[in-house]
Amino acid sequence: MDVQPPRIRGPETTRAASPPRRAIPLLAWNVIAVVLGIGIWTVLARVGVSGLPGPQAVAVRAGELAMDGTLLDDSIASLRRVLIGFALGTALAIPVGFLMGWYQTARGLIEPYVQFFRTIPPLAVIPLAILLMGIGETPKIFVIFLAAFLSCVVSTFQGVVSVDRTMINAARVLGANDAVVFRRVIVPASTPFILVGMRVGLGAAWATLVAAELIAAQEGLGYRMQQAQIYYDLPSIFVGLITIGVLGLIMDRLLLTTEKRLTGWQERR
Q1: Rounded CA separation 104/82 (Å)
Q2: CB contact at 8 A, 209 and 221
Q3: Which of 86, 198, 241, 248 has the fewest CB neighbours in a 10 Å radius?
Q4: Residue 129 counted as domain residue
């Protein structure tokens, strides 16, 4: 009868398998970042950095502006201008970007103007917009439209020219004509670029808002911040900045959710 030597257990067999460490959700990191930011802001305000108002003073001022309806009216006015300018800019940028990427003739005719106007800040167009369009809502929306259009058209164009030629050739081998290739290959492959361009264009639209509302505006977050500057009302300026940031962040999250749903096939980290 063979006697087998006792089996010696190593530390890896005696130690119970430790459960995998759970990663902290991204939302938790976002909350931590906000709390840390408010904490640093509070410390800087208490040490008296350049008269910086603290979170409590800003919250009190925000409550006052909300109670009398000023904050809501200004938010609606600014949001309306951004939405109209952004919607018009992206609605034009997407077909123009497709034309530039799909047809070489259109690219040769349009691209020089796009690249030319990209080097001109939309804010520099304000004096011309006032002279040609007056001081109503039109010049404000036009400047926001221009900022959104120039950001989105380049991304759309880049998305079309970045489509793998192998996919296009494979579709043609299977008998697809230009319309089918465009609809079933070019558009889906370009969608991630378009949505990224829309997010960049949305940021550009909000960034242009304050300057756009300098054009004889009577309401709006940018207008309210300019009025607060005259009277050195720092809490009101902070209320406007935070409101713009929150509204822009909400719209960006909506676009990001749309991007995830439309591009679920794309690998993500």
Answers
A1: 33
A2: yes
A3: 241
A4: yes
Locate 225 and state its tokens. Answer: 């911040």
Contacting residues for 138 by C-beta, under 8 A, at least 6 apart: 129
Domain presence at residue 41: no
Span 85-120, pLDDT tens digits: 999 999 999 999 999 988 889 999 999 999 998 888
CB atoms within 10 A of CB 78: 28
> CA-to-CA distance for 185 and 170, rounded, in angstroms?
10
Domain total of the chain: 1
Please write the tens of the pLDDT for every residue from 206-254: 988 888 887 767 889 989 998 898 888 899 999 999 999 999 999 999 9
Which structural domain, as residue segments, surrounds residue 257? 53-262
Tell me how far apart the alpha carbons of residues 207 and 247 are, in angstroms, rounded to a whole number: 12
Residue 222 is part of a domain; what is its CATH number?
Answer: 1.10.3720.10
Query: Which residues touch 185 (CB under 8 Å, ≥6 apart)?
Result: 163, 167, 168, 171, 176
245 residue type, one letter: G
- Give the closest residue to 196 by CA, choosing from 103, 145, 102, 263: 263
